[in-house]
Specification:
The complex is a heterodimer of chains A (about 325) and B (about 250).
Chain A (H helix, E strand, L loop, with lengths): L1 H17 L1 H8 L3 H23 L10 H16 L5 H23 L4 H21 L9 E2 L5 E2 L3 E2 L3 H24 L1 H11 L1 H6 L4 H27 L1 E2 L6 H14 L6 H19 L3 H15 L16
Antiparallel strand pairs in A: 1-4, 2-3
Helix pairs in contact in A: 3-7, 3-10, 3-11, 3-12, 4-5, 4-10, 5-6, 5-10, 7-8, 8-10, 11-12, 12-13
Chain B lengths: L5 E12 L2 E12 L3 E5 L6 H9 L6 E6 L2 E2 L5 H6 L2 E3 L12 H10 L16 H13 L15 H14 L4 E5 L7 H12 L6 E5 L3 H7 L2 E6 L2 E6 L1 H6 L1 H13 L1
Parallel strand pairs in B: 3-8, 3-9, 6-7, 7-8
Antiparallel strand pairs in B: 1-2, 1-4, 4-5, 9-10
Helix pairs in contact in B: 3-4, 3-5, 4-5
The chains are: A mainly alpha (about 325), B alpha/beta (about 250).
Chain lengths: ~325, ~250
């Protein structure tokens, strides 16, 4: 029952997203194509954070790091004339996984507020590193030398194919996370979040499970970064700003931690609300803030918790 | 000192927190198949001793041998994998998982690698079938699909024991299994635990004297970090030192 309702929700959301390009064309509002592509890219980032935050209980306050690493991997290769998507996305995945391995190996040894601070500190280091590399734009950033091309298959300069490419990756990652969190590995991860002392007592050493999840999440967010730099066509250290990490975390909490569809809903809600409020007033954050507080207070499982079929630890 | 029959040997274990000698040169042997109770007044160092046996605390000096192997330096998960399983004084289950999930996780911890990322664990009959059997054994078969948080207190304690059993332990370390239970409930728990007597080696740390005297083959009395006596229930009951140090205090409480 629950599982069916959940699958249905996800199918409806993906179908709605698939309908955006023709609708935007029909309404003569290509802007929506851009907005929803951006939403999906952040949904991928939030989805990856949810794997460690929602399912693993790892409150990483530095997830924008991987968004930045993915973006820089693409931007730097493009800067040197390499536009091949397989190379660019491959580099984005490998680089963000490697950075996650280093950050995770150190930070997962700590917990609570120390974990939050260490992940934040690492991301700030990368942020300042981005500022200091003048070759790649430094503080000001630089234009992306050219969007990614998957030789003969796909060219991200074309708005609509780019849109569907992002949608396909989002769908694939939703499925990937679904398989992961229900596998033996995922059960250990979630059990550790639920009760670490018990998990150790029955014979699991949680460290490696957490680290593996951290690396997978980093690599997934690296893909989001690779897509994001194609979206903005501009590379800047601001991708790794700590406020960006906060935004991604808000998406997860707003949408519903440890629910599959939650991060997608959270990304959509936050960015749509931002877009709407911005058109009314420049003080839109004054309105957004209280809304977030209310959701956190009254909808414990976020937006996903309000959906039919939302329940317990599925 | 060492008899071949001893499954667990605690040798001159010492642990201090500042000036407080929480474990003061404790030596103890637990024989295979016996139910060995450790009793003592509040603050006697029972929790510290258990922490060291389970691998959550490191002793300052001394050694712990399990089945002949020195496990003093091993962390808790490694001890569990060798067959030393514990329950907790304060109920410690996965509250947001079902009873069956709880036990299946304990089975999973002892059946091959869990770095398997793709196949759904809940569809894995090699985990579910033994987990169901254990739930049936502890009398929770009908409650398999209930969230642990929604089980009654006594049922949660039974679930803890089920999780201990699921790790196929060679030694069960039960930390106050009847803590927080009413009279009837604790009697039921004692009857339940009595079924494992002789079949399992058990260390029972318990405050409840009725439980201890009806379950234990031997009892060790811990006072101010020291073992002041070890013996059969009858010997312990007759020991004047124990009576003054411990049973007297019990009467006060």
């Amino acid at each position: 029952m629950h599982a069916h309702a959940r699958t249905l929700t996800i199918a409806v959301v993906l179908a709605a997203l698939a309908a955006v390009p023709p609708l935007a064309a029909l309404l003569g509002q290509p802007f929506y194509l851009d907005l929803f592509r951006r939403i999906m890219i952040f949904a991928i980032a939030a989805l990856s954070l949810n794997l460690i935050l929602g399912y693993g209980g790892l409150v990483s306050f530095g997830h924008a790091a991987y968004l930045g690493i993915g973006a820089y991997a693409v931007g730097i290769l493009a800067h040197h004339g390499i536009h091949n998507g397989f190379l660019q996305f491959g580099a984005a995945i490998v680089a963000s996984a490697a950075v996650a391995l280093v950050i995770g190996a150190v930070s997962i040894r700590t917990s609570g507020v120390y974990f939050i601070m260490i992940t934040l500190a690492f991301t700030q280091m990368l942020f300042y590193l981005g500022i200091s590399v003048g070759e790649y734009g430094g503080d000001d950033g630089m234009r992306l030398a050219g969007r990614t091309r998957f030789a003969g298959l796909l060219d991200l300069r074309d708005a609509t194919p780019f849109y569907y490419f992002v949608l396909a990756i989002l769908a694939a990652f939703l499925y990937l996370v679904h398989r992961l969190v229900n596998s033996r590995f995922g059960m250990v991860l979630r059990a550790t979040k639920s009760n670490e002392a018990r998990t150790r007592a029955i014979g699991f050493s949680p460290y490696l499970y957490k680290l593996a999840a951290f690396v997978i999440a980093g690599a997934m967010c690296g893909v989001a970064g690779a897509l994001f730099v194609n979206q903005t066509a501009y590379l800047t250290p601001a991708f790794m700003n700590w406020t960006r990490s906060g935004e991604i975390m808000f998406m997860v909490i707003l949408g519903g931690m440890s629910t599959l569809i939650g991060p997608v809903l959270g990304a959509a809600a936050l960015l749509l609300l931002e877009d709407l409020l911005q058109s009314w007033t420049q003080h839109w954050q004054l309105i957004l803030g209280p809304i977030l507080v209310l959701v956190v207070l009254f909808a414990k499982r976020g937006l996903a918790g309000l959906l039919p079929g939302a329940a317990r630890n599925e | 000192m060492s008899e071949p029959a001893a499954l667990l040997q605690i040798e001159d274990l010492y642990k201090a927190f500042g000036a407080l000698k929480a474990t003061d040169h404790v030596s103890l042997e637990v024989r295979a198949g016996e139910t060995h109770a450790i009793i003592g007044p509040n603050g006697a160092g029972k929790t510290t001793l258990i922490g060291q046996l389970a691998g959550n605390l490191r002793p300052d000096t001394g050694r712990i041998r399990f089945a002949g192997e020195d496990i003093t330096a091993l962390p808790a998960p490694a001890r569990s994998r060798r067959g030393l399983a514990r329950s907790f004084q304060i109920t410690s289950v996965y509250r947001d998982f079902t009873a069956l999930d709880n036990v299946a996780l304990a089975v999973q911890a002892h059946s091959g690698s869990s770095f398997r990322f793709w196949h759904p664990a809940r569809a894995d009959q090699s985990l579910r079938t033994p987990a169901r059997a254990i739930l049936d054994e502890v009398g929770l078969g009908a409650r398999a699909d209930v969230l642990a948080a929604n089980l009654a207190h006594g049922e949660q304690r039974q679930l803890e024991v089920a999780m201990v059993l699921a790790t196929k332990p060679r030694l069960m370390l039960l930390d106050e299994p009847v803590a927080g239970m009413g009279v009837e409930e604790s009697q039921r728990m004692v009857q339940f635990l009595a079924r494992f007597k002789g079949r399992q080696t058990i260390i029972l740390v318990e405050h409840d004297m009725d439980a201890v005297f009806s379950l234990a083959d031997r009892i060790s009395v811990l006072v101010y970090g020291r073992i002041i006596a070890t013996g059969t229930p009858a010997e312990i009951r007759a020991n004047p030192e124990v009576r003054s140090a411990y049973l007297g205090e019990e009467a006060e409480a």
